[in-house]
Amino acid sequence: MVERNDDGLWIRRFADAQDAPCRVVCFPHAGGAASYFLPVARALAPGAEVLAIQYPGRQDRRHEAGVTSLVALAETIASVLLPSLDRPTVLFGHSMGASVAFEVARRLERAGTVPLALFVSGRVAPTRLRRESVHQRDDAGLLAEVKKLSGTDARVFDDDELVRLVLPALRSDYRAVETYRFEPGPRLQTPVHAHIGDTDPRVTPDEAADWCEQTNGRFTLHTYSGGHFYLDAHRAQVVRAISEVLVPA
């Protein structure tokens, strides 16, 4: 089952859990889509309903302009999510999605809603700036970076038509995340849980540990074997970590 909510194209539901006592909102990586979290939705149902965010410029939104600003993206998603936060809610973002989820959490708290927890996966803390320019590379250079991170089915790169379809969204996502700059503000009241792979070239344990500076609540750091997409091999463990946070709800 795949549904859209009344607020448009932003939210996908992949499992029937509408009566669940809590929700988990998932934010994809650069170039990623809501469907990446289909296995997570099925694993958490019926105890929790997963709302997977679909960014513009991909899949059924491929005819829309891609992401231009990570902060503007977070503003829009926060406004879309607010009517759906009628029960305890966890935010989970991977890579670019971690930064988006963090900025969404800030906006939800300003609006008076404190998420149950924020999971930031495969991403440096916002105060740890890495000056990167992958989005300025030519198509071959951009695809080489994606291949290095091993987050895309290798068969995609053998299909020229598919490559042409994904490149615009991929480039705009990389531009948004690489031009994002953290603006200091109040610490979150939301607990923050950082999850990373131990061989991830995109984030070190030290860079992830600095997420603790963004919350007045509890902070934890979990390290798994694997690279940037450690999540693919350790999905069950990550789902278990989310479930443990949901138990008090």
Automatic annotation (TrEMBL):
<dbReference type="GO" id="GO:0008610">
    <property type="term" value="P:lipid biosynthetic process"/>
</dbReference>
<dbReference type="Pfam" id="PF00975">
    <property type="entry name" value="Thioesterase"/>
</dbReference>
<protein>
    <submittedName>
        <fullName>Oleoyl-ACP hydrolase</fullName>
    </submittedName>
</protein>
<keyword id="KW-0378">Hydrolase</keyword>
<dbReference type="GO" id="GO:0016787">
    <property type="term" value="F:hydrolase activity"/>
</dbReference>
<comment type="similarity">
    <text>Belongs to the thioesterase family.</text>
</comment>
<feature type="domain" description="Thioesterase TesA-like">
    <location>
        <begin position="25"/>
        <end position="246"/>
    </location>
</feature>
<dbReference type="InterPro" id="IPR029058">
    <property type="entry name" value="AB_hydrolase_fold"/>
</dbReference>
<dbReference type="InterPro" id="IPR001031">
    <property type="entry name" value="Thioesterase"/>
</dbReference>
<dbReference type="InterPro" id="IPR012223">
    <property type="entry name" value="TEII"/>
</dbReference>
<dbReference type="InterPro" id="IPR020802">
    <property type="entry name" value="TesA-like"/>
</dbReference>
